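Hi Y.,

Following your request, here is the sequence exactly as I used it, all 364 residues.
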Amino acid sequence: MARTTIFPAVAGTVIAASLPFAAQAQDTGVSIDFYGQLNLGIISVDDGFGSESAFTDNDNSNSRVGVIYKQGLSNGGEFRLHFESALGLTGSSSISRGNDDFEENFRRTDLRKFELIYQTPNIGTFSIGQGSIATDGSAEADFSGTSVIAYSSLQDQAGSQQFRLSTGANAGTTVGNAFSAFDGSRRFRVRYDTPTYNGFGLAVSAGEEVLARGNDGEFYDLGLKYDKDYGQYKVAGRLGYSIRDSAEELLLGSVAILHEPTGLNLAVAGGRQQQGDDNYVYVKGGIKRDWFAFGETAVSLDYYQGDDFQTSGSESTSYGIAAVQKLDAYEVELYASYRRFEFENAGPPIEDIDVAFVGARWKF
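Below is the corresponding structure, written out as tokens. Let me know if you'd prefer a different format.
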């Protein structure tokens, strides 16, 4: 999969920078960690002309398995080999009216991570392989405890659902076309993360899409993160800048705050496509408390407002409520949510889409 881009040169530079440290290091211990999760539920969608329910994987945080091989080094660093894959189950973002069968159909795009990571003692961390680009998570600072079913990337819940005109005909727009958080994902890339200083950390990455057939898009990303405790408050901030296919530039970010004694929390995310007018803002408020001995309860309300998605002058609006109940003894989260998607453009009136979702995530 050779490419006539600067990506191979960047990858070679990162590997060359890592080798002197690796050569000086000796094995000081090996560990292997297996993990995974099942996150399944029932989704019910009403498009204004009928409703359908389906059993599905929850694409907000899909079912997956992974393994991390760790080798400590005598210089204080660490090598890691990280593999993670989705299970290939039918996901909530892929189902649509009349196409909602639950099945297992593993595709190579279900490979989430296959990367080699070298964490140096002093100068940061180098990664190469399939994994998170530097803007992955830039729109997702969130202390609400309900991200398993409600977060800024609304399209993960019902992205393939079609909006309908008041006549019943398809409007030619899906939830995925009308809503986006511009958040980064996982690609074959090289990445460097600086050490954290006073709560700040910087990541840069360059990569390509190598798993989706017919798509060799390039990604160059810069991500800044901030995590700090201020007495009773926890604060998290994210800022990302992404160049995709050397044509699309995206600026995105998020900030979240939690008051630990009360569990009250607030998150705000936003983004803009630099070459166009696509933009959005997402606001989420919530509370999480130990009301029950068996685990934490979290409740949140959120609102999304976007402009100029798919067509100039369009408006995308969504609001939702979500609740999550943890069962600590079983590593299980039970959740339920309701969300409305609204889309308006210069054409005929478009019906709203209502989505209800109940499910459970079990981590192991």
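Helices lie at 7-24, 155-158, 175-178.

Thanks again,
Q.
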